[in-house]
């Protein structure tokens, strides 16, 4: 793996905290999931646009096949935002984010089938430990009927989509910078959501100031300080390791939901969070030490 002198663990913590705010911001907005996600990404593109000029030589070197992969990675990210953010309107933050913990399993399986990437037995056991902890965080909120079940299914579909996004991103990030990769992936994801909104007849304007503030917070906090950092990390870590760090989101989101949304959090969930963190730490030490 590529190495950098930059303290990667610090960036991992920043990114986890940033994405943990996503579910809180979504709950604060009355706009539909597709509209919220679309403006989140387009605002991010606008903020990144002034720096794009300096990357024009790199952009010109991108080959047609790579443009296709960038588009597909963006479409998968757009679908992830669409389904996962919609799930938060039907189920709890803890339940929805706990389902996201399936992502590293899909990424690990995909990396093996597509690229022959293997991992150690110790790393697999650590992954299982972390996922058990994450599932326990949301277990009390899982429901197997009604709208909550619908929310859990939407979160599951969103998890499959983001796993594909991560696998495509790892391949592209081997020779495309984090900035260029992120800009166009966010752009393609935003266009995917825009097309969805046109098809469903969603309004593109007329939202109150509160919604626009939420769109901006999602762009700056959760996308730039969250997803952009994870895209950057793909250069220095295995895709399965990056996806494992995302497992910190259920704990972070549950704690934030307790303070900001009034959702309950139990001692069992706190204990499960500790198990999750131990599992993630053990996985990273084993998987990145290969």
Automatic annotation (TrEMBL):
Superkingdom of the organism of origin: Bacteria
Please indicate if the UniProt record lists Signal as a keyword: no
How does it sit in the bilayer?
Answer: Multi-pass membrane protein
Gene Ontology CC terms: membrane
- Signal peptide residues are none
The UniProt entry's sequence similarity note says:
Belongs to the EamA transporter family.
Q: What is this protein called?
A: DMT family transporter
